[in-house]
From TrEMBL:
The chain crosses the membrane at residues 33-55, 75-96, 103-121, 127-148, 160-180, 192-210, 321-343, 358-376, 388-408, 414-435, 447-466, 478-496. PROSITE patterns: MFS (PS50850). One of its GO terms (molecular function) is monocarboxylic acid transmembrane transporter activity. This is MOT14 protein. The lineage of its organism: Eukaryota, Metazoa, Chordata, Craniata, Vertebrata. Coiled coil: none annotated. Keywords: Membrane, Transmembrane, Transmembrane helix. The gene is Slc16a14. Residues 246-279 are annotated as: Disordered. Its main location: membrane. It comes from Eolophus roseicapilla (Galah cockatoo). One of its GO terms (cellular component) is membrane.
Length: 515
């Protein structure tokens, strides 16, 4: 029914020339240090995504403290969640220049600083800047490297690895909710945020664990992939061929630029050796000049890669399936966030608060969400199963649950639908895998940055939009119906583009036969 990965022709980065050479795979790929990367990513999801899921505790404290409207106060949480994802494309620039490890460490410091400064907030607008923007950007600088590094270290068990690492979101939702609630009761919300800022410094430790792979290791990973997918090159799309050809044409200018940069560094080193006889002051100045020159080279190379990925002839946007994936992401994430925010009000309207207090519906979503990520990851790694098909099936299940949820008016029926929402939303663990299949490991950081940016826009405007619909209709039903219909539009785009992409080689061969 659906097009498989081989039919669509995802990968941009495989090199057919090295595919025939038997190279011993690196033990750290799919094993060894790769599992430390999974642990690091798991802890990042606990500290970042788990904390964001628990912001309802602090939101109540802010409402009491500042006496502002619910809509205005809710923007603090929405900004933090949205900016974490929206800054993805720009974090791709940092990764291109500094690597995942340095980017994550800097982000951990920035995130902790945002929490600590928020403890001294005098009004809600102060929180917009310190918590929404500062902590949000810091979270984005850690979150994207955590996802990218798992994709780099795994080939055969990528879906399982991503599933295990992203289960930290569910565990974090429980741990951070309990922790923030306890800290607010014992020490007050200001001291609670200060303590949480200190805890967030552990993100720097997670970043330090992100040991980069050498270029040789990455090339070996490409060899493993090309050997396991021999027929993939035959199904490559026209957009992928465009990017490959552009990469070949772009090698010459890049080499010239590298040669020029090396000449500058050599001249600095030569001057440095001559300056030893002139004194220590000149030596210090030359060392600073050399450091600045090396930094300039690194920045220019990283910016060139980032710019070519987004705006150059080798743009990711030439892949129409990837563009359809972006459109899908613009509508998908809000359908998962809206139930977390509005379910308590729905339960209250249906007079089910006593049952919900015993076992909250949002907790059911969080618990089953953990199992959904792991199980869907295991299924996707089976050799006879297409990750693309599993991804689409989970999306169909989720959108069906969103559309039917307003029809359920008993606790048992709502619990069943929430369990299905939690399980089917486990496809989030497959998003990095699908993205890597679409663009290759080389472009994963920039491509996944675009996808989570689209998710961030959805998370930023989805819940306020649902609240606005409620203010007009005095019902949450239409909020779910509209978000479900928009979600369906995104899924239709995913279905149409692979079919078009699959037909293109056939049309081309027909024209050649006529000639």
């Amino acid at each position: 029914m659906y097009a498989s990965r081989e039919d669509i022709g995802y990968d941009f980065g495989d090199d057919s020339k090295v595919g025939s050479k038997p190279i011993k795979p690196n033990p750290n790929i799919d094993g060894g240090w790769a599992w430390m990367i999974v642990l690091s990513s798991f802890l990042v999801h606990i500290l970042i995504m788990g904390s964001q899921m628990a912001l309802g505790i602090l939101n109540m404290e802010w409402l009491e403290e500042f006496n502002q409207s619910r809509g205005l106060t809710a923007w603090v949480s929405s900004l933090s969640m949205g900016i974490t994802l929206i800054v993805g494309p720009f974090i791709g620039l940092f990764i291109s220049m500094c690597g995942c490890r340095k980017t994550a460490i800097i982000g951990g410091i920035l995130n902790a600083l945002g929490w600590i400064l928020s403890a001294y907030a005098s009004d809600v607008h102060y929180l917009f800047l310190t918590f929404g923007v500062t902590a949000g950007i810091g979270s984005g600088m850690v979150y994207l490297p955590a996802v990218v590094m798992v994709g780099q270290y795994f080939q055969k068990r990528r879906a399982l690895a991503q599933g295990l690492s992203t289960t930290g979101t569910g565990f974090g939702a429980f741990l951070m909710t309990a922790l923030l609630k306890y800290l607010c009761i014992e020490f007050g919300w200001r001291n609670a945020m200060f303590i949480q800022g200190a805890i967030s410094l552990n993100l720097c430790v997670c970043g330090a664990l992100m040991r980069p792979l050498s270029p040789k290791d990455i090339s070996e990973k490409y060899v493993v992939r090309s050997n396991s997918e021999d027929n993939q090159e035959k199904a490559l799309s026209h957009s992928a061929e465009t990017i490959k050809s552009n990469g070949a044409l772009g090698e010459e200018p890049e080499k010239k630029e590298d040669a020029t940069n090396e000449e500058v560094l050599d001249s600095v080193q030569h001057t440095e050796s001559g300056g030893k006889s002139r004194g220590g002051r000149n030596m210090y100045g030359l060392r600073v000049l050399k450091t600045v020159s090396q930094l300039t080279v690194t920045v220019r190379k990283g910016f060139a890669i980032w710019y070519s990925s987004y705006f150059g002839a080798a743009s990711l946007f030439t892949n129409r399936v990837f563009v359809a994936f972006i459109i899908w992401a613009l509508f998908a994430y809000s359908s998962f966030v809206i139930p977390f925010i509005h379910l308590p009000e729905i339960v209250k309207q249906y007079n089910l608060s006593s049952q919900n207090n015993i076992f909250p519906l949002t907790s059911i979503i969080a618990i089953v969400h953990i199992f959904g990520k792991v199980i869907l990851g295991i299924i996707s790694d089976l050799p006879c199963v297409s990750t693309w098909n599993v991804f689409l099936t989970a999306n169909f299940t989720l959108v069906t649950c969103i559309l039917t949820l307003p029809l359920m008016q008993t606790y048992v029926s709502l619990a069943v639908v929430c369990a299905l929402i939690g399980f089917s939303s486990g496809y989030f663990s497959l998003m990095p895998v699908v993205t890597e299949d679409l663009v290759g490991t080389k472009h994963l950081a920039n491509a996944y940055g675009i996808i989570i940016c689209a998710n961030g826009i959805s998370a930023l405007f989805g819940p306020p939009f649902a609240g606005w619909i409620y203010d007009i209709t005095q019902k949450y039903d239409y909020s779910f119906y509209i978000s479900g219909l928009l979600y369906t539009v995104g899924i239709v785009f995913l279905l149409i583009q692979p079919c078009i992409q699959k037909k293109q080689p056939r049309e081309k061969s027909t024209e050649e036969a006529q000639v």
